Fold this protein.
Amino acid sequence: MTRPNHVWASGITYISTARGFCYLALITDMYYSKIVGYDLSNRLELNGCVKALNKAIYQANNINGLLHHSDRGR
């Protein structure tokens, strides 16, 4: 990791609420350990992860050579 937007990692966590669970998908820029994209949803679906990634890409200045890592729920 030599610069911002060089390595991103993604993950999902769940949050218990009075109405049940909600799911938070996050994209983290590993250079700063900063969240660069997120989505909060009441359903655990691929769409939330895609929304988080699209938000991160939209705000990024330069993603040439970007590496994106996900453990795919393992």
Observations:
- DSSP finds one helix and four strands in the chain.
- The mean pLDDT is 93.
